[in-house]
Specification:
The complex is a heterodimer of chains A (about 260) and B (about 270). Chain A is mainly alpha-helical. Chain A has one domain: MetI-like fold. Chain A is built from 11 helices and no strands. In chain A, about 40% of the residues are buried. Chain B is an alpha/beta fold. Chain B has one domain: P-loop containing nucleotide triphosphate hydrolases (Rossmann fold, 3-Layer(aba) Sandwich). Chain B has 7 helices and 12 strands. Chain B has a 6-stranded mixed β-sheet with strand order 8-9-10-5-11-12, with helices on both faces. In chain B, helix 2 packs across helix 3. In chain B, about 40% of the residues are buried. Classes of the chains: A mainly alpha (about 260), B alpha/beta (about 270). At the A-B interface, helix 7 and helix 8 of A face strand 8 and helix 2 of B.
Chain lengths: ~260, ~270
């Protein structure tokens, strides 16, 4: 049953994608008729083949991916840690919660110039901006998970002699897993935007964000689209890996009785 | 007081003296949930605690499991007082209290893990219990893959794993359909006859209490007080056919009558 559903889902996604491309092509070629304003998908394809061939795309992607991976890992780890502390100790949370909410909603990317002053134009400032964008959604997800832990499960554990640390490690954190991973999915989406913004201010020599900027500055619209699509694909890939992970690690959330 | 069941004097294992539980309320007098409950259970005896919903019968168990602090009174097991969470008791909770991220084996192992048993020791104990409660073949299944009856077998095994002196059971079969419930009662009796734990079993079903217990205690509506103490002299092992004997029906009817008197009296009061 499940084996049949997944390909069907993919099939529909593919159909939707193809229709979208056809509409786009038609619009660009027949209505807008200027590749500067809206390049047709065919032109984007040509541009992407070009940057792939020249190795330019992968040079840029390698740089962006490296600090994105380090930054989001740091942000994720810090988010889980902070979330566990806040979730487990309501009193501490009362002091910290307003800061977390503020930091979550604030446009942190605007701090990028400041971070560059602090940490230089190298990869550290970019790593930190990514980490900052990822950390708070993960924190919020973790806190939500821990606070929603089923009371009866906590009582089962308590009655068997579980201490505070056991409750945390063996009940609250496993319970919160899918909350943590949803937080991570939101964080990754923000992180991808962070790649572009970090490189916008960063004066970096390489990166997908920089590639987009350079393309924009010479009105190479097809290449601009290539850059955006690369970042989008990155986001989709990481998000779906996280979703797979959730399905594997928390099957009771998504799967009913077999 | 020493009870004599079946003519054999037995030692008192579990003793509850004047147990009181009241909840503080703002702008109202404290809500008395348990009002001077006293009871004795002999070692290896199966006692059922029956009463209308909201009578505080679960609260009695929660006090013993260390999940509720009594306002007054005293609980002892084997003469030694019980205060807070204690290794000598284990509780079988109502349905859906299994850890959904743990397999059958890991669920049963939980209590042993938090009591810091060695891995090798845990494996042996858990496998024995899987066999005892009849879950062979489902060791690696997750709770969401099991039926309600099987989930409660895991629940029972998890409590038995820590080898408690007193087993508390809080309406463990209340969420099951009637057929599953009756077969689980037979199963529980089989397992109990093998392990001979002292059991305090809470239910609102009189038939269930009579079928399972050596003695049935009837509780009144809130504030909970003990109203009747009825010995069940039916021979063991009891089977499905025993539910249809005149003795069984007489006991059930007697308790039902006492319970309904209790209910109407309270309605008249309030």
């Amino acid at each position: 049953m499940r084996a049949g559903r997944v390909p069907l889902q993919w099939g529909r996604a593919a159909v939707s994608g193809i229709i979208g491309l056809i509409v786009w092509q038609f619009f660009a070629v027949a209505v807008v008729r200027s590749p500067l304003f809206l390049p047709p998908p065919s032109a984007v394809l040509t541009a992407s083949i070009e940057v792939i061939r020249s190795g330019e795309l992968f040079d840029n992607l390698r740089i962006s991916l490296s600090y994105f991976a380090v930054g989001s890992t740091l942000g994720f780890a810090a988010g889980v840690l902070l979330g566990v502390v806040l979730g487990a100790s309501p009193r501490v949370a009362e002091y910290i919660d307003p800061w977390v909410s503020a930091a979550y909603t604030a446009p942190l990317v605007a701090l990028t110039p400041l971070l560059i002053i602090w940490f230089g134009i190298g990869l550290w400032s970019k790593t930190i901006i990514i980490a900052l964008l990822v950390v708070f959604p993960v924190t919020i997800g973790t806190v939500a998970g821990i606070r929603s832990t089923d009371r009866s499960l906590l009582e089962v554990a308590t009655s068997m002699g579980a201490g505070r640390l056991d409750l945390l490690r063996k009940v609250m954190v496993p319970w919160s897993l899918s909350f943590i991973l949803s937080g991570a999915r939101i964080g990754v989406g923000r992180g991808v935007i962070g790649i572009f913004v970090a490189e916008l201010f960063g004066g970096a020599s390489k990166g997908v964000g920089l590639m987009i900027q350079n393309a924009a500055s010479v009105f190479n619209t097809p290449l601009l689209f290539v850059g955006i699509m690369v970042l989008a694909v990155m986001g989709v890939v990481v998000t779906s890996v996280l979703r797979q992970l959730e399905r594997r690690m928390a099957p009771w959330r998504t799967q009913s009785v077999v | 007081m020493a009870h004599a069941v079946g003519g054999v004097a037995m030692s008192t294992e579990l003793r509850i003296d004047d147990l009181m539980v009241a909840f503080e309320r703002t702008g109202a007098p404290p809500l008395t949930v348990l009002d001077h409950i006293s009871l004795d259970v002999e070692q290896g005896q199966f006692v059922a605690l029956v009463g209308p919903s909201g009578c505080g019968k679960t609260t009695v168990l929660r006090c013993m499991a260390g999940l509720q602090t009594p306002t007054g009174g005293r609980i002892t097991i084997g003469g030694r007082p019980l205060t807070g969470v204690d290794r000598r008791v284990a509780m079988v909770f109502q349905s859906d209290s299994l850890f959904p991220w743990r397999t059958v084996l890991a669920n049963i192992a939980f209590g042993l893990e938090v009591r810091r048993y060695a891995r090798t020791q845990i494996t042996g104990i858990v496998q024995d219990l899987v066999d005892l409660v009849g879950l062979g073949g489902f060791e690696q299944s997750y709770p969401h893959q099991l039926s309600g009856g099987m989930r409660q077998r895991v629940n029972l095994a998890r409590a038995l794993a820590v080898d408690p002196e007193v087993l508390l059971m809080d309406e463990p079969f209340s969420a099951l359909d009637m057929l599953t419930r009756e077969s689980m009662q037979v199963e529980l009796q089989r397992i109990w006859l093998r392990r001979k734990k002292t059991v305090l079993f809470v239910t609102h079903q009189i038939e269930e209490a009579v079928f399972l217990a050596d003695r049935v205690l009837l509780m009144s509506r809130r504030p909970g007080r003990l109203r009747a103490n009825v010995a069940v002299p039916l021979r063991r092992p009891r089977g499905v056919h025993d539910r249809h004997t005149p003795e069984f029906h007489a006991l059930v009817d007697g308790l039902a009558e006492a319970l309904s008197t209790e209910l109407t009296a309270q309605v008249g009061d309030g």
